[in-house]
Amino acid sequence: MKELILLLPLLVSLVTLSYSQELRLPEGFNVVETSSPYKMVLTPYATYPVVLEEYVPKVVLEGKWGTGPGEFSYEDYDDDEGMTQRLYPSMAVNSKGEIYILDIMNNRIQKFDADGKYLKSISVPTRADKNGKSIVHVSTIPYFVDHSFVTRNKKKYVFYGNSMFYQGINIVFDSMDNLYCYVKYGRKGYVWKFSDDKTYQEYALLGSPKQIVRSDINGKVYELLSISKEGETNFVSHWYNFLTKEKESSDKSELKIERTDYSVLFNSSNEHSFKILFNDGRESVITIPSQYKFGLLRLGNCFAFPFNTIRVYTSIWVPTYTDILEFSNDGLLCGILLNPTSGFWTSYSIFGHPVGEAQLGNDGNVYYSFADKNTFKIIKSTVTHRSSFGYK
User: Fold this and answer.
1) For residue 241, pLDDT beyond 60
2) pLDDT, tens digit, for every residue of 20-33?
3) Phi, psi of 379 (to 5 degrees)
4) What is the 3 state secondary structure string of 285-329?
5) Backbone phi, psi, residue 65, to 5°
6) N or C, fewer C-beta in 10 Å, the chain?
7) Beta carbons of 379 and 59 less than 8 angstroms apart
8) Cα distance between residue 334 and residue 288, in whole Å
9) What is the pLDDT of residue 172?
10) Which residues is 263 bridged to in the sheet?
11) CA angle 64, 66, 68 (to 5 degrees)
12) Rounded to two decimals, what is the model's pTM?
C-alpha cells in the first residue's frame, strides 16, 4: 500500500523534468527564475528561457469486457509455436480527438468523443463469413473466444475455426482522417476504407502482414513490405500502396504530409527546417536543433494547433521515447518536454498491463491502451500549452 501511495502523485501529473532526484535536468539545462508562473529553463536550443512543459496522462476511456455499448472484446489464440496469445482491440484517433476502437469479437467499430463518451457502433464483419454472418455464437455474456473451446458446443462459445472468415486485425487513420480497417480472409489480406462511418470500399493487399501501418513520413496508410539499411544510419521503408497498386519507398528528397487544415513540407536541401502551409494561406517556417534533424524525416510527427503552436515529436521511430519541441507560429521555440514517457510503465502498472504500442493520434496527443481482468482502458497523454510568450 505504501508503494501505491507513492505512485499516485505521478498519476495526477507526470512532470518529465522535475527537481526530483529521479528526473534530473539533462546536461546544458538550467532552471531560471522569471516572473512567469511556469517552470522556465535555459537550454542549448535557444538563447532565451523556454517553458518546461508538463506531461499529463488521463484515463479517457474505460469499458468492461462484454457486448453492450462501450464494452469490448478480445480473442485468445495459439501462435505458430503453440503459445497462447491474446488479440486485444485496436485503436485509432482522428484530428478531432475522436477515438475509434475495433471491437473484434463483437463485429463492430465503436466510436467515442474526445472525452471518452460513447457515440455509435459501426457494424463490420470482423469475425464473420463473406456473407457477413457472424462466426461467433454465444448463449450468455460473450467477450472473448478461447480457441481451446472450438469443438465444445456445450461451452458458452462456438467458434468455427476451420471455416473461411474475415478476421479484423487493426484500424488506422491516415493524416486526412480517412479510416482504414485491415482484415484477413484465409491467407489473403484486405483493407476496408471508410468514406464515412457507414460505408467502406475493399482493397486487396499483396500478402497478409501482421498489421497495416501509417507512414510517419507522409501520413498515408500502407502495407509494409520490408525495411532496408542503406549506409550507416539510413533505414528505408518499402511499402505497398493498396489504393494505387504501386510500391513506394521512404527514400525521398522532398516530403509532404497533408492534413485536414494544413500541410507540412520538408526538402532535404535544408535539413534543419520545414514549412507549415495552412489552408488559409498562412505559412510558418520551423527550424529545429541540429541533433533532431533526422526527426524531420518523419513529418507525420508534426502538428499545428488552433491555439497557434506547432508541436514536433522528434523521434525517428515511435513517440514512446522522444523529445517534444513546441514552437510558436513565427518559429520561436516556446516549450520543451524531454522523454515524456520516462517512468510511464511503472507508474501505470496499477491500471493493468499495456496491450498496444504508444500511438500518436491525429490530434497530436499520445494514446496508450491498457487492460486488466475486468476492463479495457485508453490513456490519453497531453502536453500542457502554457507559456509566457503569449500564445493560447
Assistant:
1) yes
2) 334 467 777 888 88
3) -110, 125
4) EEECCHHHHHHHHCHHHEEECCCCEEEEECCCCCCCCCCEEEEEC
5) -75, 125
6) N
7) yes
8) 12
9) 96
10) 258, 277
11) 100
12) 0.82
